[in-house]
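Per your request, structure below.
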């Protein structure tokens, strides 16, 4: 599993570098992709940094036109962050790159092994869900379906 994770992370890091982004910036884009919108303090909490550091990073992502600030409909003093078209495109490119990597990987795996992997990923996804209660059941189901799609590519 260490080899798998190392290779997977290496490819993700390379994609980030090729896109001109840092890992925290990519993490923020994916967080917005999966959660629709959030505030700067949510980004800081996600990354484990101060609100000031999160705000500086968000400013750069706004300058790159990858995210935008919008007024919070509940509290007009607060700003919500959301992906722009360009930001969604980068996330989608990353997802497609991951799918291509999984497709290459699965050429060496038999159909029976693929079924076993899907079963194992379902168990792991459920366990991860239990460890992180903020993930809702819909997200859990989406992750399960994504894992099945990635393997059957």
């Amino acid at each position: 599993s260490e080899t798998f994770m190392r290779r997977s992370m290496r490819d993700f890091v390379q994609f980030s570098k090729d896109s001109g982004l840092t890992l925290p910036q990519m993490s923020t884009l994916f967080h917005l992709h999966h959660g629709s919108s959030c505030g700067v303090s949510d980004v800081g909490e996600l990354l484990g940094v101060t609100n000031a550091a999160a705000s500086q990073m968000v400013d750069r992502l706004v300058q790159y036109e990858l995210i935008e600030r919008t007024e919070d409909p509940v509290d007009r003093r607060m700003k919500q962050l959301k992906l722009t078209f360009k930001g969604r495109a980068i996330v989608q490119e990353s997802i497609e790159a991951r799918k291509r990597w999984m497709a290459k990987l699965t050429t060496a795996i038999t159909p029976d092994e693929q079924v076993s992997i899907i079963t194992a990923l379902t168990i792991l996804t459920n366990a991860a869900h239990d460890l992180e209660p903020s993930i809702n059941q819909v997200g859990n189901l989406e992750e399960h379906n994504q894992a099945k799609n990635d393997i059957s590519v």
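The CA atoms of residues 8 and 101 lie 9 Å apart.

Regards,
D.
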